[in-house]
UniProtKB/TrEMBL annotation:
Highest taxon of the lineage: Bacteria
Start-end of Basic and acidic residues biased regions: 304-322
Compositionally biased intervals (Gly residues): 348-365
Name of the molecule in the record: DUF5666 domain-containing protein
Species this chain originates from: Methylocystis heyeri
Region (Disordered): 303-381
Length: 381
């Protein structure tokens, strides 16, 4: 299994940040952040105060509009030649859709924010196993259709790609559901153990993955076989883009006393935080002197109370981490276990994997209706 110099990189970045910003103060985050001059977006920015003209901000969130792309209240421009990947496959910018969850690094220019690379990774790609009302199950992952995502056209057995964010209990709240051709399947999530002690993501047992990945968030590619998900490729999945000192992240959070749990990360609860339980929020983060993330600003967009609470999941994740052996190529399954590789699977064979056009042909134009209505992404520019 390949090891990453993440710790050394983190220490270096933390040192550089400490030199220019003297660290980030924990707590005191503002629920009503100031407008950082993003004229024309109709949003208030939640960028940490240290930005104000500095580039290199990690952005993770849902595409809400086009022209440029609107993500987390930021209007981010990109060139027609920008590198866009969907599940590791390079595609034209026109393949982006409202509802895709993107990860990128935005640079601040005189004309506003810009990026040269946009990464899209869907949470699950595979056949629908069950449908109850507006809830689906895809490869053992519970999916709830978010506001504006239509259920029309969904059927058991149909292969779909689901974009969205996970609640603390790991339910995916879908912002976009796209039809794809049957083929390679994908799950992105945190590896835990099920009631039988098997490695699993959601309720989907896994085979062919290293036991040392327990407790880690990964992207897996493979196929269902014998009741389990037989993994053929593994990629490490970062919460925010690497190499940044600040970030604006859309996520579900859960307040737990003095801490806020966000995407498997514990953060200090801001002094003036008013929400309780679970909430959907956009958080401005800065790297502190220890190399960890601190909340600088946040904006709650939806309070859910106890819905989606991740207490049970966090205990399973804790247990999985405590029982995980040191990385050594050990595995669960019938063949050599796969350890985590760098983010992105890279380009596959012609036709791609799980992208807008699956093997053997294209999916219907625009996919299933999502937020903003049916149909395509931005016009070619």
């Amino acid at each position: 299994m390949k090891k990453f110099p993440a710790l050394d990189r983190r220490r270096l970045l933390a040192f550089l940040f400490a030199c220019v910003a003297d660290g980030a103060a924990r707590g005191g985050a503002k629920e009503r952040p100031k407008d950082n001059g993003l004229g024309g977006t109709g949003y208030i920015s939640v960028l940490p105060d240290i930005d104000n003209g500095l580039g290199g901000t990690g952005v993770v969130g849902t595409i809400r509009g086009f022209g440029s792309i609107l993500v987390n209240g930021l209007k981010i421009s990109y060139a027609p030649t920008a590198e866009v990947t969907i599940d590791g496959r390079t595609v034209d910018v026109s393949h982006m859709r409202i509802g895709h969850v993107v990860s990128l690094v935005a640079e601040s220019k005189e004309t506003g924010f810009t990026t040269t690379r946009i990464r899209i990774l869907r949470e699950v790609v595979g056949p629908i196993e069950s449908i109850v009302g507006r809830s689906l199950r895809v490869l053992g992952q519970k999916v709830e259709l978010g506001p504006g995502v239509a259920a029309a056209g969904l059927a058991v057995g149909r292969h779909v790609a689901v974009s969205g964010l996970r609640m603390p209990d790991q339910t995916i709240v879908a912002s976009l559901v796209e039809p794809v051709e049957a083929g390679a399947e994908q799950i992105v999530g945190t590896v835990t153990r099920d009631a039988q002690g098997r490695l699993a993501i959601g309720t989907q047992p896994l085979s062919g993955v290293a036991r040392s990945l327990a407790g880690q968030r990964v992207a897996l590619r493979g196929a269902v076989a014998g009741g389990g998900f037989d993994v053929s490729a593994v990629a490490q999945e970062e919460w925010v883009p690497r190499g940044v000192l600040q970030a604006v992240v859309e996520t579900y959070v859960e307040r737990d006393g003095a801490t806020i749990e966000a995407a498997g990360t514990s953060l200090t609860t801001p002094r003036d935080a008013s929400f309780k339980g679970v909430a959907r929020a956009v958080i401005g983060l800065v790297m502190d002197q220890s190399g960890g993330w601190s909340i600088k600003t946040f904006r709650v967009s939806e309070s859910l109370g106890d819905k989606g609470s991740g207490r049970d999941f966090r205990q399973r994740m804790k247990d999985a981490r405590e029982t995980a052996p040191a990385p050594s190529g050990d595995e669960d399954g019938s063949h050599s276990g796969a350890g985590a590789q760098p983010p992105d699977f890279g380009n596959g064979p012609p036709g791609g994997f799980g992208g807008p056009f699956g093997p053997g042909g294209g999916s219907p134009p625009g996919g299933l209706p999502g937020p903003g209505g049916p149909g395509g992404g931005p016009p070619r520019r």
